[in-house]
Amino acid sequence: MTQTSEFPHDRLRAEVRLLGALLGEVIRDEGGQALYDRIEAVRQASVAYHRDPASDDASELERLLGELSLDQAIGLTHGFAAFSLLANVAEDRAGKRRAQAQAEAGQRADTPEGVLKRLADAGVGLDAVRDLLAQALISPVLTAHPSEVRRKSVLDRTATVGELLDGCDRDGVACDAKSLKEALRRQIVILWATRLTRASALVVQDEIDTVVDWLQRIFLHVAPAQLAEWRKLLDAPDLAPFLRIGSWVGGDRDGNPNVDADTLRAAFRSQARAALGFYLDEVHALGAELSLSIDLTRVTPELAALAQGSGDASIQRADEPYRLALSQIYARLSAAYPALTGEPTPRPARFDAPAYDGPDAFRADLNILHDSLVRTHGAVFADDRLARLITAADVFGFHMATLDLRQNSDVHQRVVADLLKTAGVCPDYAALDEAERLAVLARELASPRPLFSPYADYAAETLKERAILEAAAEALSTFGPQAIRTHIVSKTDAASDMLEVYLLLKEVGLYDPADPGACPIQAAPLFETIDDLRAARATLERVLSEPSARAVAEARRVQEVMIGYSDSNKDGSYLTSGWELHEASRALLEVTRAAGVRLQLFHGRGGAVGRGGGSAFSAVLGQPAGTVAGRIRVTEQGEVIANKYGEPEVAQRNLDALTCGTLLASLGPQSDAGYSAQHGETAARLSAASMQAYRALIYDTPGFVDYFRAATPIAEIADLKIGSRPASRTASPAIEDLRAIPWVFSWSQSRVMLPGWYGFGAAAQGEDPAELRAMAETWPFFRTVVQNMEMVMAKADMAIARRYAGLVPDPALAERIYAAIRAEWDRTVAAVLSITGQDALLGGQPELSRLIRQRMPYVEPLNHVQIELIRRRRAGDDDPRVSNGILLAINGVAAGLRNSG
Fold first, then answer.
1. Which of 264, 275, 330, 432 could form an SS bridge with 436, CB 3.0 to 4.6 Å?
2. How much is the pTM?
3. How confident is residue 6, by pLDDT bands cut at 50, 70 and 90?
4. d(CA 265, CA 471)
5. Catalytic site residues?
């Protein structure tokens, strides 16, 4: 690779070839020529199989796979997995170049400049944008949902490869220079010799550490930079931060028995260490920089007073007011550090000072410095290191990320029942109907009398939940109101589910019957099944008719509601999930408007299309009119975090895309502009037919569960050490009890991608193709549905799926169910092509199509080896290397497809 090609895809191909050639050299040197030759033979046989599974050349694949020794299989899998990881680096760089070129050409609406131009063209001025962002909340929420198969050590290596190539671009060094190749080869040797899979299961503290690492390395730096850019573009130097980073890690105990009061405290201590450590380093650096002498400059009276009050007695700094002030700020931060983090300050101050009691006083002192610099020396100090530090303190405080609590409503019911029974209030709360439960809860919420007695005996679950909420109260007292804002209730299907949370908060002093609006934590329902989404209107109406919940919502002027993409998809199909979420959002908006409060939707999206994945920008634009209104929260989880926020430039681009989507959905032409009553009726029919077809296969077909568990690596995925919680909510083998992530992950591995498309073809059969095309052209919601479906189907491969079906012990069952899936696949492909007017999937997106085609020859061998090793394992080969090889293949396929769950 000697020069930048005229065509972007040529440059991408050249970089892939460079990295692939270096990997090949490493494999020959480290693994031997025989392994290299075996890898190449399997790759060629896999390509032949892809072209024609029935050909003689393709049959060579079965012979090669059958002859593989375990060591050869593992070496081969390791090689293809490493190549996929390196190819991802080249693709990410191509994506950055493409995004930059499109932004410079003014072709992107998901950039700050692009969205302001589009809004201006629609008659929306900067004042309206400033006003919206002044009260906006845009919040990506990092979760520990287990869909990231890559170890941090692997991510670090691939990041270093990318940095080396980026440095080559910046420095103008020829990309085939000897020094670059040597540096790349060194990293590839390390990658080749690095174990790609985890040797032990993650615990909650591992997940906390991972999220804190992202917060510390990326978000602490990117959030202030993003706000500074928007302030300049809008000429709004005082624009308050609208970005708030959230986290579930340490507070999400739904189905995770490993989360308790200690993990909640550990999460805040870990987050505080990162935040305060960053602040201490920045204050120290500013102290080295701001050496201004009082003999050569003027300062404001406020700064003079701050400097004079400093405990710094250094003679060398006696004439340096900024350094004196910063010494005092550093000492106060240093004094706060042990109490907030549980550890000694890494670099203690030289003198004692009173600890800051919160971030407000810290920001106030920093503002004194900044105000003095700007007043005295002008705009050169308006957006500098100190300004970015102030912004970081505004966004992150001492708590770093706002931590959500989450628990299943069944748990709350049992805990409340235990409290009521032990207190002699109600002998069997669970036996009451909804009206009776609400009456009991309302009485208790109006009474100042606590239910809990330290002298009574309670179930372990009750004591655990109480301890967690006590830890939450401690966190709020220590870190302030931004530490915890929301308690999400999974499996919400009744108003009593919300009131139970307020009753439990009352037990730890967070809900005061005399002033319910002062409750610092709002209960938020999570509607996630199809039935729950359909009942969402009635449920929320009943919630907001209760004085307790209504008071909290009115005090905030907002009622948050979370809607779940994963379980609704598993429950009713991709199309039905999307439509029911869309309709529930409309209904929830009507309810909150009638109650006089704003709706704040929290979108529980995953990485895969079957769990709500896809472009966040397009997803926001596809929301029903009025449901965004400047406020949106979105989960970011698993591999999505690394893909979207793995480096500062990419992270800022994705945060800007979410911001731009929010602005357009809130201020631009209404997202429902292309919607008509006829389109709505058609979408409703499509949804009903899709759900019928989907459920007929998943829940009503005899033997389907057996097929699913044999024709996908679901059992093997359960052995992946990628999360701290179990794959199923219960020991039941039923699909209903399986978590959405392994459900989607297993279909992705077997290349069926069923959760992302099944049911659409059957639904579209009876509809007018012209109307479906019109819906896709004019209605953002439907267009996004079709585009996401098209993208996920392009990664599917029915020929490989048939080979997985060969793992089913009953050939008749395998043929019957595979034939049903294949028939629906053919119908869905035909429907999508009819709507898009293209001859092939992704025909209108040639760049994406090319990327997928280029990587499949290196992903498919991993599928074939995975099948072979699964066959051996299920035949009784209990050699640990077989299991390790399967997990390595799963890892490689996930890396190659760029999504797991």
1. 432
2. 0.89
3. very low
4. 7
5. 145, 570
